[in-house]
Amino acid sequence: MFQKLKRRLIPVLIIAAAIVLFVYMKSTKPVQKPVNVQEKVWMVESMKAQFEDLSPVQTLYGKVESNALVAASAPVAGVIEQVLVKEGQNVVKGQALVAISQADLMIPLAQAKAEVANATAQLKLQKLTNEANQQRYEHESKVLKLKQVAVTRAQQLMSKNLASQSSVDAANEALVRQEYVVVGAKLAVQENQLKISQTQAALDKAKAALQQAELNVKRGQLIAPYDARIAQVNVSEGSRVNAGVVMVSFYALDSLELRAKLPVSQLPGVTKALQQNIPLHAYYQTADSEERFKLLRLAGEASTSGVDAFFALPKSLSELRPGELMEVNLKGVAQNNVVAVPYSAIYGSNRLYLIVDGRLQSHTVEMKGEVLRAGRLWALVKPDFAEGSKICLTHLPNATTGLKVSEVVQ
To answer: What's the per-residue H, E or C state across the chain?
Structure first.
């Protein structure tokens, strides 16, 4: 009986002990303090909006070119006698550059003079012939008149029975023959006049060839027409060249320009400024100073990427060579009441955030270009807020209206 009671009591005691242990552990476990969730504050930099009248700046990349590059060609085929310059050398007005052999220049000149002399003699001969033909025509015309009188007299005599029909026929035959002779004489005069015109044309052609030969003699001794720089020398002493082969290329020192591609977005403003004669300038920063390039004109043709603009190079940069690349900043027409901000403040293409009561507030603005500040490009915007408003400069990836921020004190 006791053994049976013992087997029943042990499970009950184990369950009771477990319950007591569970209650004890539950009552003695540590109590966790409630979590106090606080809103995160983002540290940002800011600046006060300052309204200014500023000119937008557009960065352009261009290449130096010359608008007066001369390629001097050989006027005749010949041997190069002298080459007096080298590539890249500066020359002054009147300085000799290249000379072709005198023999190659003088022989065509002598031939041209001979052609003129021959054509002159031919013209003189044709004029003498024309005088003789004219005199013959006048003489034969007088004989024709006599023949006509003879026919009239013979007809009168026959009407009075003082002459026979055969004498009238003979007179008519003589008249017809004389008319034919007059026609031949007149034709000879007209033909000779045409020959005079042909000979005169040949003489004019020979004189033109002589002028060309005299001009070739001058061009055979190539002289600098102005202060210039030698771009290329394509011949050497002793080499033989054909007519039309480029011997030397050079350009005037004051002909250098900067050709830069103007974006399509900037074209309307620049075109309007040029039409209204408003001067626009591009600026180039050197190690010592800032150089100013005046906008001269726009190219006559456009492309999908923009239009080429041409700027005058200042004399201080005359050492530049065609082909050199440059980066310049074009200043546009001044904009009124705009604000310059770093690009870190811009979200998307037309949005920034103001700081109002410690929280961000989104504002849409109109982009007006760029401006240089301390050597860096800042965005130029047309604001829709009051002057003195605080602009958030720190670019936050999670920026949104209402985000709590704290300004960093610098």
So the answer is: CHHHHHHHHHHHHHHHHHHHHHHHHHHHCCCCCCCCCCCCCEEECEEECCCEEECCEEEEEEEEEECCEEEEECCCCEEEEEECCCCCCEECCCCEEEEECHHHHHHHHHHHHHHHHHHHHHHHHHHHHHHHHHHHHHHHHHHHHHHHHHHHHHHHHHHCCCCCHHHHHHHHHHHHHHHHHHHHHHHHHHHHHHHHHHHHHHHHHHHHHHHHHHHHHHHCEEECCCCEEEEEECCCCCCEECCCCEEEEEEEHHHEEEEEEECHHHHHHHHHHHHCCCCCEEEEECCCCEEEEEEEEEEEEEECCEEEEEEECCHHHCCCCCCCEEEEEEECCCEEEEEEECHHHCECCCEEEEEECCEEEEEECEEEEEEEECCEEEEEEECCCCCCCEEECCCCCCCCCCCEEEECCC
Q: What is the pLDDT of residues 71-122, one digit of tens each?
A: 999 999 999 999 999 999 999 999 999 999 988 888 888 999 999 999 999 9
So what's the pLDDT on residue 33? 65
| pLDDT at res. 3 | 63
**Contact, 232 vs 135, CB < 8 A?**
no
Rounded Cα distance, 99 and 80, in Å: 6
Structure tokens at 5: 């009671």
Query: Cα–Cα distance between 212 and 75 in angstroms, integer?
Result: 9
pLDDT tens digit sequence for 162-201:
667 777 777 778 778 888 888 888 888 888 889 889 999 9
- Given a contact cutoff of 8 angstroms between Cβ atoms, the answer to whether 234 and 76 are in contact is no
Which of these, 88, 60, 54, lies nearest to 311 by C-alpha position?
60
Question: What's the pTM value of the predicted model, to 2 decimals?
Answer: 0.62
At residue 263, does pLDDT exceed 90?
A: no
* pLDDT at site 160: 73
DSSP strand pairing (366-373 vs 78-83): unpaired
Query: pLDDT tens digits, residue range 114-164?
Result: 999 999 999 899 889 888 888 888 888 888 788 888 777 777 777 777 667
User: How far is C-alpha 114 from the chain's CA centre?
Assistant: 47
